[in-house]
Amino acid sequence: MKGRPRPSHVAIMCDGNRRWARENGFTDVTHGHRVGAKKIVEVVGWCEEQGIDTVTVYLLSTENLGRGADELELLMEIIGDVSDEIASAKGDFRLRVIGRAELLPQELCDRLSEAEERTRDNKGVRVNIAVGYGGRQEVVDAVRELIGNLAGEGVSAAEIPDRITVDSLTEHLYTSGQPDPDLVIRTSGEQRLSGFLLWQSAYSEIWFTETYWPAFRRMDFLRALRDFSTRQRRFGK
């Protein structure tokens, strides 16, 4: 990859855990979640090797919160474990949780907050984990926060519409202060964004693979980077 264009921000949709478990003969499909969780820190390490500054990993959507109680309980435990592993990794990673914390159990919120605090001053790869996340809701939350701030500053209702711009709204997204993803990777063969970083991915390159997330290999990751390096990005021009 030397000398080739490479992304500075990679976003990953870790899809296919349950299908991987079924196709590999596991009667308990939650085994796929456990195996997939172990892959996350490994992939962040691959990103570090390639000089990628920011990684965003989609772990739990707002729609996923409608799954069965037993599966959700396990997912919450796994997400907490993943945050601990990122915070304890040798890579000096900086953790940031994006999504609606109020939708999560308090115990998980506490674990996530603690992991964020432990990595606050780290200088390595920035790792965003999207939990209780919905792309449409993120935009709604950003608009509400922006309007609330403007009203609090004494801006009149008549003036507020003119103060809402692409830049001002971007400052209120969950990923405020970070670059948009250059590359979005989705595993499992599904070819849609499913609400992931809808605003931020407007000009992202998107790479799909049939490989399920637990089986995602370093070779697959390098293929995604190689494909990215051949694309001519126009940013809508």
From TrEMBL:
Q: Which residues are annotated as active site?
A: 15, 64 (proton acceptor)
UniProt GO cellular component terms: plasma membrane
Instruction: Identify the InterPro entries for this entry.
Output: UPP_synth-like, UPP_synth-like_CS, UPP_synth-like_sf
Q: Which cofactor does it need?
A: Mg(2+)
Molecular function GO labels: ditrans,polycis-polyprenyl diphosphate synthase [(2E,6E)-farnesyl diphosphate specific] activity; magnesium ion binding; Z-farnesyl diphosphate synthase activity
| NCBIfam families per the UniProt record, alphabetical | PRK14828.1, uppS
Looking up PANTHER family in the UniProt record yields: DEHYDRODOLICHYL DIPHOSPHATE SYNTHASE COMPLEX SUBUNIT DHDDS, DEHYDRODOLICHYL DIPHOSPHATE SYNTHASE FAMILY MEMBER
Q: What does this protein do?
A: Catalyzes the condensation of isopentenyl diphosphate (IPP) with allylic pyrophosphates generating different type of terpenoids.
Q: Which HAMAP family match?
A: ISPT
Q: What is this protein called?
A: Isoprenyl transferase
